[in-house]
Design brief:
Helices cover about 45% and strands about 20% of the residues. It is of the alpha+beta class and about 425 residues long. The strands form three sheets. Strands 6, 7, 8, 9, 10 and 11 form a six-stranded antiparallel beta sheet that branches. Strands 1-2-4-3 form a four-stranded antiparallel beta sheet. The radius of gyration is 31 Å and the shape is extended.
């Protein structure tokens, strides 16, 4: 194998690899022989299929797979030979050589920048701490009661906390929406599930009562015909219902899979779930804190531009998907506004990897297994989830990456100058701004 290397930019390299075609043909021949020993083709006995038939049936597929494998293997060898640390996915292109008996290709990629010695002891971080108390368990049980509530119709004016069923239509200078009939919906007063200026008008209204409201819809309103339009909205209440919360009794407890129906056991299960959430949130905050301080400490280091662009495009795509799930089917986001956040993500990822490399940190199997057990414990059949992960290389690869990142973050935090900040569980669980 012949390898040549070019510096095409500060952090970009192009490597050209030439391979004897015999290496490729050897792989193809070996695979075809393996297929020939096990292939079942009508008209031939197992293991007795002529090589020509095997070639005709499987040759194209085998050659395609073998070529891809050869590229991956030889590129890995070339990168190791040149002592390069690749950032991102190489762009591979076949090269024409004009020489028989040779396979040649080039790969263009960016490399990890030189961060110098990354010293965690120079970082000053704030580490959040919290614990689960009885009040947190009481609050979660109350939330679960709210989720299981039923509604009883009442003959009175709507009050905060009531479920109000309502029919609406809007009239603008362009016409009526909907053109005929009304939109039907329901909202719990105080939840702001409905547009707040409309929901606030429902308080004090009774079933059968109708009211007109003048409002201007926001520019991003989900109904395109009403977006940024001044309108007269007609509201008609059809039903007012009051919540009926279930008692925390044996039947309620059993509905959550606690066969004994004992409240004490239910509370312990709720505590375990909250502690799992707490652990995950503490790690998320610690990861964000360490990443922020790491990136700030190495802000002058040039980063791979193509890697940042790719990350920004992924973030834009994720934002589009989220917007569409929230009822904005035509949402479109450009990558440029995400570039600053993408740069921070790329820098944090590279720096965490650099800390692991410089300190020879390896994935701890016990920690990987503990995390897998924790994930599985949230499902009805944990053993089935564990088996799913064990048999899916992509799932396990993603899990290994996550656990390794958390392991490195903990390693950095243990050596940084840390100040603890005690927070209540409720405060901790609020989204980080």
């Amino acid at each position: 194998m012949q390898v040549s290397l070019e510096n095409t930019a500060n952090l970009e390299r192009r490597i050209t690899v030439s391979l004897p075609v015999e290496r490729f043909e050897g792989v193809v021949g070996k695979r075809l022989q393996e297929i020939g020993r096990s292939a079942t083709i009508k008209g031939f006995r197992r293991g007795k299929v002529p090589a020509k038939v095997i070639e005709q049936r499987f040759g194209a597929q085998v050659r395609n797979e073998a070529y891809g494998e050869l590229i991956r293997e030889s590129l890995g060898e070339a990168i190791a030979q040149e002592n390069l640390r690749v950032a991102g996915t190489p762009e591979v292109k076949p090269e024409s050589t004009g020489e028989a008996g040779e396979i040649r290709y080039s790969a263009t990629f960016e490399v990890v920048p030189d961060f110098g010695k990354v010293d965690p002891s120079q970082l000053k971080i704030v580490r959040a701490t919290s614990s689960i108390g009885d009040a947190d368990i009481d609050g979660m049980i109350e939330t679960l009661r709210q989720q299981r509530r039923t509604w009883d119709a009442v003959e009175r004016a709507a009050e905060p906390g009531d479920l109000v069923t309502v029919e609406t239509f809007a009239t603008t200078s362009a016409g009526r929406y909907p053109a005929e009939g009304s939109d039907r919906g329901a909202t719990v007063l105080g939840s702001n599930a409905m547009y707040p200026e409309l929901e606030s008008q429902l308080a004090g209204m009774s079933a059968g009562e109708e009211r007109e409201v003048d409002i201007t819809f926001p520019a991003n309103w989900r109904v395109a015909e009403l977006a940024n339009q001044a309108a007269k909205v007609t509201l008609k209440v059809t039903k007012v219902s009051v919540a009926n919360l279930p008692a925390v009794d044996e039947a309620f407890v059993k509905s959550f899979g606690i066969k004994s129906g004992k409240v004490d056991q239910f509370r312990q299960e709720v505590r375990s779930n909250l502690e799992r959430e707490l652990k995950g949130n503490l790690m998320q905050r610690l990861r964000a804190e360490v990443a922020e301080k790491l990136v700030a400490a190495h802000s002058s280091v040039e980063l791979p531009p193509r890697l940042i662009q790719a990350e920004a495009r992924q973030m834009a795509a994720a934002a589009e998907q989220q917007a569409r799930q929230q009822g904005q089917p035509n949402a479109k986001f450009e990558a440029d506004p995400f570039l600053p956040a993408a740069r921070n993500r790329v820098a944090a990822g590279l720096l965490v990897g650099e800390v692991a490399r410089q300190n020879n940190l390896k994935l701890e199997p016990a920690r990987l297994n503990e995390t897998l057990q924790l994930i599985a414990s949230t499902y009805e059949d944990p053993s089935q989830v564990i088996e799913l992960y064990r048999n899916d290389p992509n799932l396990m690869s993603s899990l290994r990456g996550r656990v390794m990142e958390e392991q490195v973050i903990d390693w950095i935090a243990e050596r940084a100058e840390a100040t603890e900040k005690a927070m209540s569980f409720a405060e901790l669980m609020r989204p980080v701004p």
